[in-house]
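Bug #77: duplicate submission created two jobs. Keeping one. Sequence:
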Amino acid sequence: MRKMIHPIQALLAVTFMAAGFLALGVQEARAIDVCGNGICASTARPPETCSTCPEDCGPCPPPPPPAVLVVNMIPFAQSAETGQDSEPNLSVNPNNLQQIAGSAFTTNPTGSTTTAPIYVSTNGGTTWTMNNIVPSANGSTGDITLRFGGTTNFLYTGTLRGGAGLTLNLLRTANFTAATTMTLLSSRANVDQPFVQAATFAGADRVYVGNNDFNAAGGRTATVDRTLSGTAASPSFTSLRIETRNTCSQDGPPIRPAIHPDGTVYGIFYRFRPPSCSSPFTTDVVVVRDDNG
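Kept job's structure:
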């Protein structure tokens, strides 16, 4: 017996079949916003226009810069070296932001013992080379920091001369990319942890080198070596004792100067004081200021 299908039942069946196909994965086409894929068209579903999809209408926007760019400062030619390369220091030339100088406890890769290297970049830190221009007695350095002057392009370096113990060398070069050894401006013994700051005022570089000077009386070792004429042919440095009180035979090793653009100079250091004169020391954090530079 043939079963009669009511028209309403047939319509419901077709509807259910269509719903079934949709449930099995037949989905509405959707545009994907990818720059340059040509999907921004009025035939896309949902319809898109230049106002809703600007990525495909006109030039593509530049890619966003990376949040963090990691660069290995060790040049490719020295990739196999296994030195410690500790206590790194950087200085960007304020007069040319593409020029960056770096330092660390790095040995001359050529094997020479008369000079030690600094790191040099002339493209904003993207690539690096070594320039062996720091005077040395063993091809390396002790503590070393460096700073560019403000507008003069001079690079100043304070270092403990490699192979000479606690011998402070204050150095300068007018061209940190040249092969010429840096000029020695000042030298003395029994000094630790030089830290250089420099800035240009009225065309002359003022250079400040914080250091722990064991030649100081009464254990007042926190010292800043200063010259107000770093660009002169033979600048004269003066050792300023910024510790005014007796200590536990010395202040803490790091003495750090800082220069304000108005010429005010600050210094910060640790004062080791009684009652605990052995590790862990009783310590004051001391900040000093010179309003006249």
